[in-house]
Amino acid sequence: MPDRDPATGGESKGLEQAVRGGEVERAGSGGSAPAVRRSLLPAPGQGFGVTFAQMFKKVTTEQYPETPKVTKPRYHGRHVLNRHPDGLEKCVGCELCAWACPADAIYVEGGDNTEDARFSPGERYGAVYQINYLRCIFCGLCIEACPTRSLTMSNDFELADDDRQSLIYTKEQLMAPLLPGMEAPPHAMRLGDDEKAYYLREPESGSAAEPVTAERA
């Protein structure tokens, strides 16, 4: 077995053997036989060979932003606060999304509905809703925690900006747009006499509440 340099543990000697294209002793191999190099090229030549081989392969160039990138259907992009078919908000201000967020990027303040000012079915709604996209890691844990499917993630990924304040999205920016047949809250419940009519019903095909594909203003 070749002698080892006590200062470097034999690394310098192994490097000299690698450059010569000879046998290299594996670190920590003990008394096992050294590995045999199967190439006559020195190690740096082999490494640059991989680089030069890639230089002559066809490069796939995406013409972005002229040609928008098509994302996967379940891509985790910008969040959307969805609505019920009559326009009331699905968010009930429970703050479970904020508790589930590992980056502490969501801030929610719940408010109480009244008969004169109703924003969602039930007792409460999300009065203040903010998502800090400087912190968000798009993990999707918030949408898993949402009990009413109010919070979902769209395919919108163009969130870059040169102003930090503009990357803190407010409720008005996150709310889904009003579609035909919807009425902007506050207003009374249109689907039934209580909130059970909103949650204990058969989902309609092509629901107007989600997914949201319209561009944001």
UniProtKB/TrEMBL annotation:
Q: Which UniProt keywords apply?
A: 4Fe-4S, Cell membrane, Iron, Iron-sulfur, Membrane, Metal-binding, NAD, Quinone, Repeat, Translocase, Ubiquinone
**Residues that bind [4Fe-4S] cluster 1, according to the entry?**
C91, C94, C97, C146
Note accompanying the cofactor annotation: Binds 2 [4Fe-4S] clusters per subunit.
Q: How does it sit in the membrane?
A: Peripheral membrane protein
In terms of InterPro entries, this protein maps to: 4Fe4S_Fe-S-bd, 4Fe4S_Fe_S_CS, NADH_quinone_OxRdtase_chainI
The protein's job, in short, is: NDH-1 shuttles electrons from NADH, via FMN and iron-sulfur (Fe-S) centers, to quinones in the respiratory chain. The immediate electron acceptor for the enzyme in this species is believed to be ubiquinone. Couples the redox reaction to proton translocation (for every two electrons transferred, four hydrogen ions are translocated across the cytoplasmic membrane), and thus conserves the redox energy in a proton gradient.
Xref: HAMAP family = NDH1_NuoI
E.C. number: 7.1.1.-
GO CC, alphabetical: plasma membrane
Origin organism is Geodermatophilus obscurus
The record's catalysed reaction(s) read: a quinone + NADH + 5 H(+)(in) = a quinol + NAD(+) + 4 H(+)(out)
- Quaternary organization: NDH-1 is composed of 14 different subunits. Subunits NuoA, H, J, K, L, M, N constitute the membrane sector of the complex.
Compartments, record wording? Cell membrane
**What is the recorded name of this protein?**
NADH-quinone oxidoreductase subunit I
Q: Name one GO biological process term.
A: aerobic respiration
Which terms in the Gene Ontology molecular function aspect does this entry carry? 4 iron, 4 sulfur cluster binding; iron ion binding; NADH dehydrogenase (quinone) (non-electrogenic) activity; quinone binding
Q: Where does [4Fe-4S] cluster 2 bind?
A: C101, C136, C139, C142
Q: Where is the 4Fe-4S ferredoxin-type domain?
A: 81-111, 127-156
Cofactors named for this entry: [4Fe-4S] cluster
- Which domain of life does the UniProt lineage start with? Bacteria
Specify whether Chloroplast is a keyword of the entry. no
**Region spans: Disordered:** 1-38
